[in-house]
Sequence to fold (150 residues):
Amino acid sequence: MTVKIDSAWASHARQLLQHAGHQKGAARDTLIDLLSRETCALTALEIEAKLKTGRSGARPVARASVYRVLDLLQEHGLVNRVDLGDGITRYEIVDPAGHHHHHMLCDQCGRLVPFHDPALERSISRLSTRLGFDTTDHEVTLRGSCTNCR
Fold:
């Protein structure tokens, strides 16, 4: 099951950056719009490609601008860098309400599949309690083969 991101994140991101004193920028707005529509993490190159092909509905954004905006969004806690152990950095929005999902990664083709499992969340909470650990964040990545590669 994938988690649907709504445009509330885009409004939140713009408002937070404005309050932090950052001026509006076309590249930043375009990137924020794109990220708000995504359901899972993307690499900077995937983001650039989506912006170049016009799937974002706006003009292309230079690679340097993509990295600059991603760094700015990460600095303000609006995106997380996601490292799934495959040497590729991905970026994923941080939901202001704290909702998140986990990932399945195909070792053959690199396909990334988001999933949310309430039972897994309860198990993590119970494990933390049992071990006397105050868990503030967690990431779960399942690795293996997707249905296309099996």
In short: Helices lie at 8-19, 26-37, 44-52, 63-75, 118-130. The chain has one domain: 8-144. Strands lie at 42-43, 79-83, 89-93, 102-106, 112-115, 141-144.
